[in-house]
């Protein structure tokens, strides 16, 4: 029995010795295998990286992500100011845009203009798989800048404009001051063809460029008058004419406060704007400044002037944009708690209309106060 136990002990010792040698051998091989696996991993990553870069370079060759091309420029010999038409894409050619920008004769910082939304922009409707904007035309049923979408939709939200399906021929009217590329008024004209729209634009060159490059139209419910918007407001006030919407997007591109032009913030002019609004009408104005450091100052200043004239104004601001939109109207809300209730109703209506008008993606990052 003792001999058997001794034999078992020796056998276990041999097994343990054998297992120890195997473990040691595996430990010596492990770094080599690990190194091989690491090397293979790096090779796979390099191949995938090279393949991805190749695809991106090929796409960039066809439709670069930041492609832009100035297709036309017209200059005023007296002032030296020019209007440039630029076609561009920011998403590998999935969507093409056409912008109209004020520039001077020698310099044009497109990226700066684009970033600040200084100018006007239209989305282009292009043939399938278009690699360049040739053959594309402006799509008046779409918008690309949140502030324009807000100016377009808020009059419907607060009830100043009727829903397109409820608006009868020429029963409602809009006065638009400042044309740009006609983006706002052509969107309204497309969505609500029965809305009677009058546009005042001071610069005849803007009107010509908008007609040529943005496809603006003149018909029974849309007309452009080449004249100072102040004249249009004063004329309407003298004649007792009233509108369901007055939209102000008149700008001085090289001043600290770009929009609105300072004269439109004068108390007497604001009173006349109020006078030409119907009792249920709305006044929408774009406020834009050059420097974000001056943003709070100019917004507060404009808000104060507007509230000195109108009982209530809705203020919309946007994330990562300097543009602000104020929509003011006659309605005075005195009942405690009613303002909050109306705000919720307006917010719900805004979401519904934005989706219906196809501009809901533009209005995802904003604040209404």
UniProtKB/TrEMBL annotation:
Keywords: Membrane, Polyamine biosynthesis, Transmembrane, Transmembrane helix
Record field: transmembrane: 40-58
Biased composition (Basic and acidic residues): 13-22
Region (Disordered): 1-33
GO biological process: polyamine biosynthetic process
Organism domain of life: Eukaryota
SUPFAM superfamilies with a match to the protein in the record: S-adenosyl-L-methionine-dependent methyltransferases
Protein name, per record: Methyltransferase-like protein 13
Protein's organism: Heterodera trifolii
Record lineage: Eukaryota, Metazoa, Ecdysozoa, Nematoda, Chromadorea
């Amino acid at each position: 029995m003792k001999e058997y136990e001794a034999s078992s002990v020796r056998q276990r010792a041999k097994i343990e010795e054998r297992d120890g040698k195997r473990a040691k051998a595996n430990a010596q091989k492990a770094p080599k295998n690990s190194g091989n696996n690491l090397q293979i991993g790096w090779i796979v990553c390099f191949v995938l990286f090279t393949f991805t870069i190749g695809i991106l370079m090929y796409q960039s060759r066809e439709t670069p992500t930041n492609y832009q091309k100035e297709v036309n420029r017209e200059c005023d010999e007296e002032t030296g100011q020019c209007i440039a038409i630029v076609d561009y894409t920011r998403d590998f050619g999935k969507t093409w845009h056409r912008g109209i920008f004020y520039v001077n004769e020698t310099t044009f910082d497109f990226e700066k203009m684009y970033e600040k939304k200084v100018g006007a922009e239209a989305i282009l409707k292009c043939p399938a798989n278009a690699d360049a904007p040739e053959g594309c035309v402006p799509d008046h049923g779409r918008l690309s800048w949140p502030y324009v979408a807000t100016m377009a939709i808020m009059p419907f939200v607060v009830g100043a404009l009727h829903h397109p399906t409820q608006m009868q021929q020429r029963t409602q009217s809009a006065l638009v001051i400042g044309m740009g590329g006609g983006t706002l008024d052509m969107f309204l004209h497309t969505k609500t063809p029965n809305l009677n729209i009058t546009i005042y634009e001071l610069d005849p060159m803007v009107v010509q460029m908008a007609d040529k490059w943005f496809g603006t139209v003149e018909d029974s419910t849309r007309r452009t008058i080449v004249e100072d918007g102040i004249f249009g407001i004063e004329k309407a006030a003298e004649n007792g004419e009233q509108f369901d919407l007055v939209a102000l997007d008149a700008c001085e591109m090289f001043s600290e406060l770009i929009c609105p032009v300072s004269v439109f913030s004068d108390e007497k002019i604001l009173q006349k704007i109020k006078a030409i609004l119907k009792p249920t009408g709305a006044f929408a104005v774009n406020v834009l400044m050059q420097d974000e450091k001056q943003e709070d100052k100019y917004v507060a200043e404009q808000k104060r002037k507007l509230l000195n004239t109108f009982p209530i104004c809705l203020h919309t601001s946007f994330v990562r944009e300097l543009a602000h939109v104020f929509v003011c109207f006659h309605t005075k809300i005195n009942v405690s708690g009613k303002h909050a209730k109306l705000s919720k109703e307006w917010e719900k209506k805004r979401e519904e209309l934005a989706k219906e008008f196809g501009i809901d993606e533009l209005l995802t990052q904003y604040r209404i106060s």
